[in-house]
């Protein structure tokens, strides 16, 4: 069995995967960051749980969820990232890769806007691309090609794979559409937001509340710490997101379902 380190090293040696080499360097091989991820997500994920990772990119969160003993369904539409995930997790039967975008409706294809130099911000959302154009902190970001990718829904993933204990949603401005494809009850999820598209975050928050989520928290900038000691209401979370300075840039909203 090839080690995780060896599989990642093989990807780093592949010139065709050069655009994801920075992500591989950042997300893998940092033991302190791995430990911090595990401490953070242990509050949501237990051994034997099913976890959905919607927008898996190169799979660092998959690695965390697997260390915590969960089965993972990883949803990722980018062919290069899909290749990386197949390579990294080739020997792990508890990781299932769905090579598609997740949205409000299932369909044969949707247009996916690729940022070749920074694939982590590639997106299905043209509004996200427009919002980033000229925005502070987003200088130099270029979505330079388009591909067609298949689409699935959150409900469809549940029908095929089961109900997750936790779902991470990181889809660059398409979070509201992912939640629009969910009509059944799930225990906990997170969705990313950016300060260039606060209105998308607000609509995603309102959709989460309509789905029965009633307790909310937030982490900013990947700092792996919740801002609130006590979980807050949808209204309080919406006010918090609206008041953030532009420089906060991004973070993740965490949602717990009513008991």
TrEMBL record:
Alphabetically ordered keywords of this record: Methyltransferase, Transferase
GO molecular function, a single term: methyltransferase activity
Name of the protein: FkbM family methyltransferase
InterPro entries to which the protein is assigned, alphabetical: FkbM_mtfrase (IPR006342), SAM-dependent_MTase (IPR052514), SAM-dependent_MTases_sf (IPR029063)
KW Methyltransferase (keyword) present: yes
Gene3D superfamilies (UniProt xref): Vaccinia Virus protein VP39
Superkingdom in the source lineage: Bacteria
One Pfam family, short name: Methyltransf_21
Occurrences of domain Methyltransferase FkbM (ranges): 53-197
GO annotation, biological process: methylation
């Amino acid at each position: 069995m090839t080690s995780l380190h060896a599989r990642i090293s093989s990807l780093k040696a592949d010139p065709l995967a050069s655009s994801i080499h920075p992500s591989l360097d950042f997300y893998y091989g940092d033991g302190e960051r791995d430990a911090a991820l595990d401490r953070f997500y242990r509050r949501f994920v237990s051994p034997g749980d099913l976890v959905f990772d919607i927008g898996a990119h190169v799979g660092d969160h998959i690695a965390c969820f697997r260390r915590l003993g969960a089965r993972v369904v990883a949803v990722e539409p980018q062919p290069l990232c899909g290749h990386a995930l197949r390579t990294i997790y080739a020997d792990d039967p508890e990781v299932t890769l769905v090579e598609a975008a997740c949205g409000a409706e299932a369909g044969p294809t949707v247009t996916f806007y690729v940022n070749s130099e920074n694939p982590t911000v590639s997106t299905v959302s043209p509004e996200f691309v427009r919002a980033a154009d000229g925005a502070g902190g987003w200088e130099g970001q270029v979505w330079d090609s388009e591909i067609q990718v298949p689409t699935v829904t959150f409900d469809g993933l549940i029908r095929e794979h089961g109900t997750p204990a936790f779902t991470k949603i990181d889809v660059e401005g398409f979070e509201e559409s992912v939640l629009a494809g969910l009509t059944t009850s799930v225990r906990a999820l997170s969705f990313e937001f950016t300060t260039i598209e606060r209105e998308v975050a607000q609509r995603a928050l309102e959709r989460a509340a309509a789905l029965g989520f009633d307790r909310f928290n937030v982490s900013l900038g990947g700092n792996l710490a919740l801002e609130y000691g006590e979980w807050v209401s949808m209204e309080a979370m919406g006010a918090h997101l609206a008041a953030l300075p532009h420089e906060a840039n991004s973070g993740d909203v965490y949602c717990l379902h009513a008991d």
